[in-house]
Design goal:
769 residues; Arc Repressor Mutant, subunit A; OB fold (Dihydrolipoamide Acetyltransferase, E2P); five-stranded mixed barrel
């Protein structure tokens, strides 16, 4: 990360880190005099301290409290130093140059005025920040001198100018356009994943290795790139591990719990599941007042019993926010002693659970619910595919107890009503394919496929949604704090963009109508069987707002629900753990006993109650970080899988069109690669902005979103996940000799300024600098 220039520091002056640690460890705000006294500063050192504290305040590291005292900053300052992280077309994104928060640094959209001082990646600015909705924007005040930029990449050996052997840093970010010459490798070797600092500008930019991370190409290690790039914590402290071991020894007795061990409760999960949060059971309701209805139990791992508020485990779980799932590993929110051990609901073993009892009427509507702490002993852990096959064949799997198949029949019976209620609600139905990377026992790629979507998946999903709704409403009834899962309706700006996009498909979209999920579902149904359906669904997805966590309810647009909270995955999501704690407090579910060496309570802690809004914002950011890291890693595995097919012709589909070329994805595998306009033929091509097409000058060829075509794979880079294609009949090096455009020859349509394939803000696609 870029570092701000520092004033010369006298020998006796403490470092920023020492000052920050003292302020953080102090019970309240501290003044300059207290800081000077603590570090025994005198004379000139006290004057230098004043200047250093001013720098730290200006940069947002500390805040000034009333009475000119200082405390550690807990959010984004109104004025702070930002570093430009990405430039996407005309949009500039920046992050704080220094960030001391517990969650990931926020990403701000920079509102530039004019083009005289256009910003580039790595530039530092002093900016005024403003919160808008669920995000932040920055208004630049002045451009600052740039510091060194930190880059994650892999060291490769190649030739340099004049054929001289050189070491290069190949960035792990697919948006990076260049490799960087390495001036200092440190103790790293070719092939190592490293963190390096860049210095210089333009062709003179050099990389200096500052940290060796490891070998990303060793079996089951490709995820290391995303872990390093996104600074995902993946090693637990000794303090956290010690508390986890103590928690794992907590006694498990029926005292204070409902004993459900005799019920044939089952868990249905992915075959490769690493932890088991949830299990389900259902039976027809014998109450004459609920004829045709059902009783159901959704049993969720009682993580709040083991992870107590304000302890080391709790602090680490909040810092991580969620587990991160990669094809080659999981980075758990909790140590494996808990996440894959005593918290995980496993068949034949007594486990602590939070039981959500549901009553469902004949229309699939929830009519009542209650929550208890319980003891469960699952009958079976079943993979989705096995559960589906057993139900379809009406035959038990080998090794199942006699009551497992009847339990599945009952689950399906109740689910038919829940599914009926869901259909009446008409939630957003975006059935987008999910890629699954299958590794062999050695950790090498065996297969990449689209994960099959079965009724068994939908069944569990609907039971979980029902329990999540019940949790939110149960807490609302007690006027308790709720960490809602919020999904707001699309903004008008996004809807206008969607309307313009749909017009290129000759599809109308009325902005004046009341926008509900059903509106989008009708749009999807209208393209059923059309090759362009994937692009339509992706466009609808892009038009949606991002779901987030917070204590102020705004409903869940996508699910068409008024109140919704995540309750069903406390092993892997901190938000769910907070909901469990709130239920413990609201319904007096504290179990008796005083655990040794652990916090006494299992309800909401002091930090929870005071910081729901701040925690919601932090864990929302951590969730976005995890999703991006997971997606990037799958892209890297796809690129690694395709690396052996470079030069081959692959079936592809165009996913995006820009003035500088079009993007395509490989059918059945995913990944995204560019076909530069220079590879499209000797004719000139024009970008029709309205139709979102690239059209040849004489109208002989046109490329549009959704179009299927064969492409030759030119490059597959496992480090960044980037792919590059060309047309099968393209000559080596592309089409270089284009005829000059004749005056008066212009393809009809609304074309981008510049015409020659890339606008002025798109740099030349060079290899190195």
């Amino acid at each position: 990360m870029a570092k701000a220039p520092k004033r010369p520091q006298p020998a006796g002056l403490p470092s920023r880190e020492q000052i920050l640690r003292f302020i953080q460890d102090s019970p309240g705000a501290v003044g300059k005099r207290e800081i000077a006294k603590h570090f025994a500063l005198r004379g000139a050192d006290k004057i230098a301290l004043k200047a250093l504290l001013k720098d730290m305040t200006d940069e947002g590291v500390v805040d000034m409290a009333p009475g000119r005292a200082f405390h550690k900053h807990g959010g984004l300052p109104k004025v702070t130093v930002l570093r430009v992280a990405a430039v996407e077309g005309d949009t500039v994104w920046a992050v704080p140059d220094r960030w001391e928060g517990s969650g990931p640094a926020p990403r701000l959209r920079v509102m530039e005025k004019g083009r005289k001082s256009a910003l580039g990646v790595g530039d530092r600015i002093l900016a005024r920040t403003e919160e808008r909705g669920t995000g932040h924007v920055a208004h630049p005040m002045k451009k600052l001198q740039s510091g060194g930029e930190s880059v994650i990449g892999v060291l490769v050996a190649d030739t340099g100018p004049g054929g001289k052997p050189m070491t290069w840093l190949r960035p792990a970010d697919k948006r990076a356009r260049f490799d960087f010459a390495v001036a200092d490798m440190g103790d790293a070797a070719i092939g190592d994943l490293v963190r390096a600092e860049l210095s210089g500008r333009g062709p003179a930019t050099k990389a200096r290795v500052i940290d060796r991370i490891g070998d990303p190409f060793a079996p089951r290690s490709l995820s290391m790139i995303a872990i390093a790039k996104h600074d995902i914590p993946h090693v637990f402290s000794d303090e956290t591990l010690a508390e986890a071991e103590r928690a794992a020894t907590l006694p498990l007795t029926p005292e204070g719990r409902e004993d459900l061990r005799d019920l044939p409760i089952v868990a249905i999960d992915p075959a490769d599941a690493r932890d088991h949060d949830d299990a389900v059971w259902a039976i027809p309701d014998e109450d004459p007042g609920n004829k045709g209805g059902w009783k159901a139990i959704v049993a969720i791992a009682d993580v709040s019993y083991y992870v107590r508020p304000d302890g080391a485990l709790d602090r680490e779980a909040r810092r991580r926010g969620n587990s991160v799932y990669f094809p080659d590993r999981v980075v758990p929110m909790l140590p494996e002693t808990l996440s894959a051990g005593v918290c995980s609901l496993k068949a034949g073993q007594d486990r602590a659970a939070m039981a959500c009892h549901l009553t469902v009427d004949k229309h699939g509507k929830l009519t009542s619910w209650r929550f208890t702490r319980a003891l469960v002993r699952l009958r079976a852990n079943i993979a989705y595919e096995r559960a589906q096959a057993a139900y379809d064949a009406d035959a038990p799997d080998e090794g199942w107890d006699a009551d497992v198949l009847p339990a599945l029949r009952h689950l399906w019976g109740c689910w038919t009503l829940l599914a009926k209620a869901r259909a009446a609600r008409s939630p957003l139905d975006l059935d987008l394919p999910e890629r699954q990377v299958i590794l062999d026992v050695q950790g090498n790629i065996a297969e990449i496929r689209v994960r099959e979507r079965l009724d068994a998946h939908r069944l569990i999903e609907d039971y979980m949604i029902a329990a999540n709704v019940a949790a939110a409403k149960a807490l609302e009834a007690k006027k308790s704090p709720v960490m809602y899962r919020i999904h707001e309706p699309p903004s008008r700006e996004k809807l206008v963009s969607l309307k313009e996009y749909l017009e290129s498909f000759e599809q109308s979209f009325a902005l004046g109508q009341v926008i509900t999920p059903a509106v989008f579902n009708r749009l999807i149904d209208g393209f059923s069987g059309d090759d362009r359906l994937p692009e339509i669904m992706e466009a609808i997805l892009r038009s949606q707002t991002q779901a987030y966590y917070g204590p102020a309810n705004a409903g869940h647009f996508g699910l068409a629900l008024g109140s919704y909270a995540h309750f069903t995955s406390p092993i892997r999501r901190y938000a769910d753990l907070l909901v469990h704690r709130a239920l413990v407090d609201s319904y007096r579910l504290e179990v008796p006993g005083k655990p040794k060496g652990l916090p006494e309570r299992s309800g909401l802690g002091e930090a929870d109650q005071k910081g729901f809004s701040r925690i919601g914002e932090a864990i929302s950011g951590l969730e976005r970080r995890a999703m991006e890291a997971e997606r990037e890693t799958v892209d890297r595995y796809v690129a690694a899988y395709l690396a052996g097919k470079v030069g081959e012709i692959v079936p592809a589909r165009i996913t995006g069109v820009q003035p500088f070329g079009f993007f395509a994805t490989v059918d059945g595998l995913g990944g995204d690669g560019l076909v530069p306009v220079s590879m499209l033929g000797s004719e000139r091509f024009f970008y029709d902005e309205a139709a979102r097409t690239l059209d040849s000058e004489h109208g002989r060829v046109s490329y549009s979103v959704g179009q299927r075509l064969d492409l030759r794979l030119l490059e597959a880079n496992p480090v960044s996940g980037a792919l590059r294609f060309e047309l099968p009949d393209a000559p080596e090096g592309g089409f270089r000799n284009r005829p000059p455009r004749r005056d008066g020859v212009k393809k009809a349509g609304k074309h981008a300024v510049g015409k020659r394939g890339r606008p002025g803000n798109i740099r030349h696609q060079g290899k190195r600098r």
